[in-house]
Amino acid sequence: MDASKKELADSGNLKIEWAKNHMPVLEQIRKEFEAEKPLKGRRIAMALHVEAKTAVLVETLAAGGANVAITGCNPLSTQDDVAYALDCKENISCCAKYDCTNAEYYEAIDKVLDMEPDITIDDGADLIFKLHKERRDLLPKIIGGCEETTTGIHRLMAMQKEGALEMAVLAVNDAQTKFMFDNRYGTGQSAWDGIMRTTNLLVAGKTVVIGGYGWCGRGIAMRAAGLGAEVVVTEINPVRALEARMDGYRVMPMANAAAIGDIFVTTTGNCDVISTEHFLKMKSGAILANAGHFNVEIDLEGLKKMSTDIKTVRKNIKEYTINKNQTESREQNSNKSGNKHEIKINVLADGRLVNLAAGDGHPAEVMDMSFANQALSVKYIAQNKLSHGVHKVPAEIDEWVASLKLKSMSIEIDRLTDKQRCYTDDWEAGT
Amino acid sequence: MDASKKELADSGNLKIEWAKNHMPVLEQIRKEFEAEKPLKGRRIAMALHVEAKTAVLVETLAAGGANVAITGCNPLSTQDDVAYALDCKENISCCAKYDCTNAEYYEAIDKVLDMEPDITIDDGADLIFKLHKERRDLLPKIIGGCEETTTGIHRLMAMQKEGALEMAVLAVNDAQTKFMFDNRYGTGQSAWDGIMRTTNLLVAGKTVVIGGYGWCGRGIAMRAAGLGAEVVVTEINPVRALEARMDGYRVMPMANAAAIGDIFVTTTGNCDVISTEHFLKMKSGAILANAGHFNVEIDLEGLKKMSTDIKTVRKNIKEYTINKNQTESREQNSNKSGNKHEIKINVLADGRLVNLAAGDGHPAEVMDMSFANQALSVKYIAQNKLSHGVHKVPAEIDEWVASLKLKSMSIEIDRLTDKQRCYTDDWEAGT
Amino acid sequence: MDASKKELADSGNLKIEWAKNHMPVLEQIRKEFEAEKPLKGRRIAMALHVEAKTAVLVETLAAGGANVAITGCNPLSTQDDVAYALDCKENISCCAKYDCTNAEYYEAIDKVLDMEPDITIDDGADLIFKLHKERRDLLPKIIGGCEETTTGIHRLMAMQKEGALEMAVLAVNDAQTKFMFDNRYGTGQSAWDGIMRTTNLLVAGKTVVIGGYGWCGRGIAMRAAGLGAEVVVTEINPVRALEARMDGYRVMPMANAAAIGDIFVTTTGNCDVISTEHFLKMKSGAILANAGHFNVEIDLEGLKKMSTDIKTVRKNIKEYTINKNQTESREQNSNKSGNKHEIKINVLADGRLVNLAAGDGHPAEVMDMSFANQALSVKYIAQNKLSHGVHKVPAEIDEWVASLKLKSMSIEIDRLTDKQRCYTDDWEAGT
Amino acid sequence: MDASKKELADSGNLKIEWAKNHMPVLEQIRKEFEAEKPLKGRRIAMALHVEAKTAVLVETLAAGGANVAITGCNPLSTQDDVAYALDCKENISCCAKYDCTNAEYYEAIDKVLDMEPDITIDDGADLIFKLHKERRDLLPKIIGGCEETTTGIHRLMAMQKEGALEMAVLAVNDAQTKFMFDNRYGTGQSAWDGIMRTTNLLVAGKTVVIGGYGWCGRGIAMRAAGLGAEVVVTEINPVRALEARMDGYRVMPMANAAAIGDIFVTTTGNCDVISTEHFLKMKSGAILANAGHFNVEIDLEGLKKMSTDIKTVRKNIKEYTINKNQTESREQNSNKSGNKHEIKINVLADGRLVNLAAGDGHPAEVMDMSFANQALSVKYIAQNKLSHGVHKVPAEIDEWVASLKLKSMSIEIDRLTDKQRCYTDDWEAGT
Questions:
Q1: Chain D: nearest CA to A274, how far in angstroms?
Q2: I want to staple C273 with a disulfide (CB 3.0 to 4.6 A). Which of C59, C211, C430, D421 is the partner?
Q3: Of A61, A41, A119, whose CA–CA distance to A128 is shortest?
């Protein structure tokens, strides 16, 4: 290993070590895996954000006896030092780099699948999709997969609905100890960590527009309010819209929110949440960030076309300049002699997951819970024969993760007494 | 009608009118019911908290063509003026009074059932329980029932599990537009309204212990924090315990919380959440309130036995005095010559639902949504043949209630574009 | 004492006893006063809200050896049972009744002054004003006064500026342990207690407009947000306006806020904060409450003139109906055949202090601190010769009150070490 | 300029440009300075954190006609690219580098003073201190200085008290538009930005101990709660301690807090807030950060002596390992055979200002206000003859800054009507 390589590995290992020290649940599982080797002989293909917390999961799986090949699940979320450190470890190969092209991205997916996995772990379902479209020969060998994120589950449910899903998948995202914590408290904090460190701007006193009030959205909204912002929520679901309002936020269509927002964060899982009609209404200087899985929520193609100038004004910030009159005249074919009016729009991290592309991703402690679910779900797949389709994570895994987490925080809770257990089962006690 | 009766009716009607003006969703439904008479000829027996908002529901059902007989579902939650005003209305009979004895309470249940209902509406399942235990002759005539509260659903699920439920029941409580709003924002506010007006004490700077972090519990915790309290949560469920901690609250067993709490609010649906072992550890002057359905959460029998003195120190507040040494010596048979040490414990509203027994119950706006679900569920029962067992409220009712509520608040929300709808259904779009 | 009188006294004493049990600082002072009799032979005239907490102060002063005569400082804030109970006590005479006329109000002020006081205690400066305008003969006998509220201090400073203040006054309101707690946490909670119990409406999801971001205003805003409201602040001071914005609230002129508010609370100390131009812009059903000292903040005279109908729709709520077209046509002299458009405006407690006129006033614990300052200020006046003019409460009183309060809450804090004290005094230590 | 120098300047200028775009008040002042040249011929010596926002102030002063020489005020807060970019500008010389030694630090102070300034701008009073101790020859030329921070003012007041202050100083820190915003909202956010990006740990669910509840401390506490932490405050001032409690936080001595904290942030301005007695009680893994001006709040010397191992575990994080038994045995001379028990303590940024040493400092928008006060105070010094001693910033500067800031945020506020102005001045209006 030459000096610069060694430095890279050292830097990666330092990060991994730090993460490991803050992931006590996974640490406990690793110890058990080391003793029991429940994944002995398994080949696991992974496509996750390649950074320190993921590395701890990878090591845990390897400790359980598996061979692991991993690539990224997002072109901007890979940390090269961690990737290299992982690749140096036994029974682990890592094929991912920061800021790869789309071609490189999919090439890496292919390379990971070349290991002929029997288990997959996805964050966005790219491995499973590739398997079903181009690598169908590998499907028969698969005994099951795990999916980490809402967007991926959504995609898999769509596949299942069309009868196109030909493998078993555990919906790890839908474990309570995953989505209620990782999506809410994890994204809630890490999105703002990313935005604050990237912009060095004050959140207090700003109008923050959150696109989508799902678990991620409510986490981001909660923290925005906690940082002193006025929060505006956009939604398509009336029940969620009502919830947002009862939580004290303003609720309105994006077409109205566009004109008043200082910072926009999208987290819907859908495309074009902010699109050309909205850019034109924005205040000059608006900040746009995405915290949803894919980079489709902000219509960057549309924005690019409208812009007269695009430049990097700070690390991870691109400023798009729209000449409003020109745009409007183009659209409305009106007189061009009007006063020039420029809108400058700042897009963070090219509309990719702002917490990962412009930060270090979720805090270690929430990933501890999410990845504990992953590790135990992989073990469950290895030990049970599952039918094709999307499956729930068994409730006992969920409860076990929660209990272990509480223990690591030295928090004790009550237990039902016998009398209380009887009362619970009894339906005869009344007023 | 003599003068005092008239005054009673006027007072009741004024309250009903005020509530009606703040229940726009139910108002919309009433108009449709008046036009369509979907409940024509139906006999509906109800056991709900007899106060103004409930009266608006009763009137709505009567407007739909039904005959309605109603009694209370809690000995301390009836407002006599509203009860009388209701009883004066056409096609409605009301049989409920404030502070009735247990005997009177069950007598009234019986009297309401005497109408030979085909539909029941319960809040705690007392009607359904009575039907199954003592009035089985009436069961064949029942086409279905509605249940309003978590506790009732819990009871009914226990019955169903034992094969003892012989009628169809719609779990109105479990509609999203019910439990997420009524239980959380409704109980969250009304419990504190009740506690504040009853005690005139400051919440800020106090340690508030919440027993249970279900939907009611988290509403009460959220508002306690919003009022400046330090919040402590007790739980038996590890996932909820973790959530409470991530929400910034302290989590511990009641045995520890007992010693540090200034105000205790129980909301578990279970018995003995605060019991004899806890009273002894409390600070003198502790305030105890219950926001769960039944008055079993605080072990008042146990407290009474331990007390050397019980007196009313303010309206709706009973002060129990425990002589700690005496109690301990009784228990430990130790030397009685020790210094006397008194603990004074203040119980609000005799441990009954504090928001109703010491206040006016939930704000009209949340009951608007809950009772809109009730009215539409009753209509659904009247128009569909349902099998025995607990049924979900149809999703379209839920969504319709939310949409109508948003409209009444002049809130518009986004709709999916065609492109977005396609994206949602598509599973091929990736990174 | 006849039976109904005895009942009245009992009811009053029960309330006083409850308050006393939650005012540990004043209790400590009472013990010292009883032993030392620092007010022996003093005659103290008071005009404060006559309710239970005030009664505890009155008893404390009497315990110190004083003769006390008290009346109210607001026509709607007197509680008759407490007034009667006080009047029955030795060395205390109370002359106040609920819902008195203006004439009765000022008559009572006079009657209290008839005792020829040497010390006054005011809440709004009405005693002092009367002394300077009509009872100047009594001025020479006065050795000093105490003023409880921002509004009163404001009035006294205006008098002093004009050279019209001919006695010494301690600005009790300006003690840190008074205004930072009573005005902020006290008003913050009690205003909402009053509004919630009076309306039984949901605060969550509503737009609440707060007129003024002084210490009262920020308390009310903080609690409104804590109850789930969207908060809008109006201000005239740019620094406070900025603070409100940084605290996450919307800031705008009342002319804009009028159109979007669901609940309005004024707390500026000034007149016409909400006036005729604003009423016309309001949503029908808007709720108006005042938490400022005098009932001048909402222009009720103007509202009355605009209204076609005024009726009581619930206890303490008057509904004013404005026929918008008529009003506009009257103003604009336009065609009267337009469609009728009614706005209904609900005013709580006739625009008087909502926490007192529609509630029980501040929680006992904050009044404990405010009245501890009063009691110690009275003692200070009795023992020191002060020049004419407005004086600060001595810092040692402030600190003593805070320390005693912390002790009563079992809270310990750090002390400076010798090294830290040196560091504090040293200016040579640098980077 | 060689390539790497050019890159450095470009990087610095990009940062300055970004900051400038978010400092509209200073921008407005710069325009006026350019037109009026109020500082023509002035020589200004500065010791501030050399980063982008400061650079905008420096440029503003230069635009006003001044010659400016600047160095840092903290060894770890200089950003080298900004320093270089500044040094390249006309009439500006910058002498500061990141991670300088103490000797280099004071050398740079001297070098800046070599310009023979007539005005100084300090952040911590190091220039003024140097002037009074070693460069007294320069004192007669000084017409005044500005001080930016609480700690500096504190030092200057101590000097003044001892009669040692021989120049005029404007207490810029004490302008309302400075300390209420910069110290509270600025430090509140930037301290957490620094901690989150440095640790990548979750704040939610952690116990955060804040040393000191001054304006910085309450900002940090507010944001900690907003990020989901349980907040514990330590104080020496009883009034502030009470405030912290009423704000919902736990209050206790550091000796107790040490045992329960996960993250500690000091912000007292004093030394040894966390010291040897506290380290020993801490949970292993505790995170320690300082947000006070000097690096004296955490006793690092003491910690170093207790530690058996010190290593960098992540950028800006040093882990100190304490062998508890050894330490105790050393202290207690007890048996050494006990079980080894290690405590690992993580110190961020060597106990220096965490927001600057491990982040980008305050958000631009708050520095806009602080530095607008600086620029206008410098102009005020240039145009007025001030006596020796600490002076307040004139109120009109404060109000002007606030108004201009509101305008830049497009926020309008109310103005007093004539009637209201009369009411304000009138003391005769009563109940």
A1: 23
A2: C211
A3: A119
